[in-house]
Amino acid sequence: MHEYYPILIVGALVGIFSLIFLVAYLTIRKQKEAIGFERNMKDGVIIKRLLSYAKPYLGNFLLALFLMFFSVAYDVISPLMVGWIEEMIKVDFELNRLYTMVAIYAVILIVSLVCTFLQALLLQKTGQRIMSNIRKDLFEHIESLSHGQLNEIPVGKLVTRVTNDTNAISMMFTNILVNLIKNAFVILFVLFAMFFLNYELTLMVLCFVPFIVFFTFVFRKFTRKAYRKVKDGTTDINTFLSEHLSGMKIIQIFNKEAVKKNQFDKKNKTLGRAKTEQILVFGIFRPLVYMLYISSVLCLFYLCGKGYIDHTEFLGQVINGGTLVTFYMYINKFYNPIQSLAEQFNWLQSAFASAEKIFTVMDIQPVITDCPNPIELEHVKGDIEFRHVWFAYVPGEWVLKDISFTVKARETVAFVGSTGSGKTTILSLICRNYDIQKGEILLDGIDVRKISVSSLRRHFGQMLQDVFLFSGTVRSNIVLGKTDVSDKEVLDACRYVNADRFICRLKNGLDEEVRERGNNFSAGQRQLLSFARTIVHKPEIMILDEATANIDTETEQLIQNSLERMMNIGTMLIVAHRLSTVKNADKIFYLSNGQILEEGTHAELLKNKGKYFDLYTLQQDRKKLSAPSENETPNLCKV
Ligand SMILES: Nc1ncnc2c1ncn2[C@@H]1O[C@H](COP(=O)(O)OP(=O)(O)O)[C@@H](O)[C@H]1O
Ligand SMILES: [Mg+2]
Q1: Which candidate, 567, 581, 566, 572, places its Cα nearest to that of 615?
Q2: In which domain, by residue range, is 392 found?
């Protein structure tokens, strides 16, 4: 019995380590559970949805599986061959036979390497395609969300979904799925071969399996949480970054660099800690499995070495040198996939967590959708009517209260009133950026909810408060992807709205680069570009929101002039702070607190001597005070 003491000692050491590990796990588990990263979607649901993306590439996966068998074959056959070579060298050595065996070994190795390479290539390609499909769907879905829904999700979060999370899924398809199957097969075949070769030694190796199972189980629990923490940290940082990089100028202007740096530091540290934790978990698991591996090898060497030296057998079986070498290699081939299996399961979990996040975004039902059998509007006259419209962004907090008015085709109407009175809201309701809660909005006598959203919006040209220019060129910002627009049309549109004056001074004209958000153009220039954009799209109804705010008097005149021209194109709804802009409107509505207080033409409203009159006289007085001196020459290109 005493000859088995070394094995017992090794077993006892492994047992003690497991116990320490268990105690550590149980003590930390409580505080871990408090973090709550559990998922809401069932694994089955996620798998089903992911598989629907993989289905078109089933052939590729099958081919990859087929190729995989060659690398499995190498893993199983190579130790046997090394064993045979070992035995041959020892028992009846023959150089030619050695050459043949080495050559066969080399061929098997090369075939397996080539197959592994092809398989990786195939899976990478497939994974990338699946990922790009998911990204496309996700982007399309985000496009379909309403303004209100988009306001609720931080941009950084969406960016993370489209980039990081889709990456995790791609990793699942390229790396994890097939390798998981491969590893399972390697373990199975290696075990089978070991049993076939020497079941007694195999039983010895199997004694360590319960420990492996236990470590793996504990490890999985730890890593799952670590992964989620890392993910949440990444999303958090991305959200913070995307918002603060856009607002960096404000941070600098208000001298808030230190405050923001501290906030960023905190998030950064949280992510750093999460990553460290993740690495720590791996750092503990890998050596533990390695310890088991070394223990098995030690036991093997002990048993086999004993056999050689003492000429004794293990459990009645004679062990030769070949068996020792083969088993040594098999133990390695057995532990490697076990270690990666556990890690791959975690990656799989992480991919599932990402998939869940992506599907959660995809499951947000767009609220602004077409009704069944929507009306496709081919031509629009431009009559607009609001009938007792009530609207609230937040349920119960009415922003518009019982608004009713009509606008006839080709009329120009203006909305004036104090900030927050609901002017922008009215404009955004007409083309269904939001849906109203009570009442009706009619376009040419048809409820806008009965018209298909795309055909409805096609007839509107919206020029909003802050003009958004995309990075690209002046031309690309004017045509916005419309393909059938000639340069002449673009230039005509620019001329029509007086934008040609500054464009002609640009070094590259229409090809001048526009940087992100158009930050290399002045507010007035951006405004004029947005006018040109609208003109090119030939809308029947134009919506203009506070275009003349923050613009100098000369530019205002330019814009005023282009506006007057645009008024001839179709129905026009304007919100303006400067009443000079709206003097010529057919009808003016004075709004206060979500209600229309006064309506009429400029002259009528002045005659009424109500709120509009007060506002007008106030602005006239101010104008007189700040009128420029007469010898100052206006510089129109300073737009
Ligand atoms: N996206 C939104 N979510 C919640 N409330 C909003 C939103 N947009 C505007 N509001 C609120 O609606 C009211 C009217 O806003 P708005 O129509 O933009 O006013 P105006 O254009 O007349 O200055 C304001 O009290 C504002 O706080
Ligand atoms: Mg507004």
Answers
A1: 581
A2: 377-459+570-626
